[in-house]
Amino acid sequence: MPKPKTLFQLTGRGYAPATLGKATLVIIDAQEEYRSGIVPLPNIDATCEEIAVLLAAARNQGSAVLHVHHLGIPGGFLDPQGSRGHYIAGLEPINGEIVVEKRLPNAFAGTDLHEHLQQIGHLDLIVCGFMTHSSISTTVRAAKDYGYRCTLVDTACATRDIPSASGVITASELHRIEMAALADNFATLVSHSRELI
Fold first, then answer.
1. Which of 118, 120, 187, 193 has fewest C-beta within 10 Å?
2. How many degrees, rounded to 5, is the angle at CA 170 between CA 70 and CA 106?
C-alpha cells in the first residue's frame, strides 16, 4: 500500500510556509483562562514562549499583528470582566495592533476579522494560539473559505485533554491529530516559530 499523501500533495495546491515580512500574524485567544483558569493547558508556558518569539519577531520587522480575544461568560469561562479573560502576560497587544473580539470559536463569525485582513492586504496568515481543536481549527478552516493561506506553527498552538466515549483523549494526541487534519487541506504546518523568522 502506498504511503498516504495530503490532499494538498495529491491536488498540487499546497504552498510554502509564509514569512513574517509578507504575512499577518494572527494570535488567537492568548488569554489567562488557559494558563490558570478552569482549563489550564499542558505545557502552556512552552507554547507561550513560542508565541512570544513570533510576536517579538513580527514587531521587530514591522509586520502586521492581529490579536483575537474571546469574550466569554461573565463570571465563567473566559470571563470578559475578570482576570481569566485577560491576555497572558507578555502576549498583550500594543498600540497600533488590531484586536478582534469574538464570541464563537470561529474568529470570522460575527466579527470584522475579514475586513481588517482585507485592509492589511496579506493573503498569508501565520496562526497561533489556543485551542488547537476549537478556535484554531474553526478559524483556519474558515480562512480557506475566504481565500487566505494559513501557516500554522505546531509548537505555538496547544489544547487540552477531552473526554470521549472510549476514554480520555490526551491533549498531545488531540493536538497531533488536529494539526494533521489541518495540514491535509487547510494550512501549511511548520514545527517551530524560528522556521518563519
1. 118
2. 25
CA 22 – CA 36 distance, rounded (Å): 34
The model carries a pTM of 0.97
Cβ atoms 157, 192 nearer than 8 A: no
**Which cell goes with 61?**
520587522
Q: Which domain holds residue 128?
A: 23-196
Q: Sort residue 147 into left (φ over 0), alpha (ψ -120 to 50) or beta.
A: left
Residue pLDDT tens, the chain, 197 long: 889 999 999 999 999 999 999 999 999 999 999 999 999 999 999 999 999 999 999 999 999 999 999 999 999 999 999 999 999 999 999 999 999 999 999 999 999 999 999 999 999 999 999 999 999 999 999 999 999 999 999 999 999 999 999 999 999 999 999 999 999 999 999 999 999 98
C-alpha cell of residue 129: 494560539
Look-up of cell digits 494538498: 8
- Domain with residue 139: its CATH number is 3.40.50.850
18 lies in some domain: no
- Does 13 map to a domain? no
How is residue 156 written as a grid cell? 505555538
Chain centroid to CA 160: how far? 14
Q: How many domains does the chain have?
A: 1
6 within domain boundaries:
no
Q: Is residue 128 part of a domain?
A: yes
Q: How far apart are the first and last CA of the chain?
A: 38
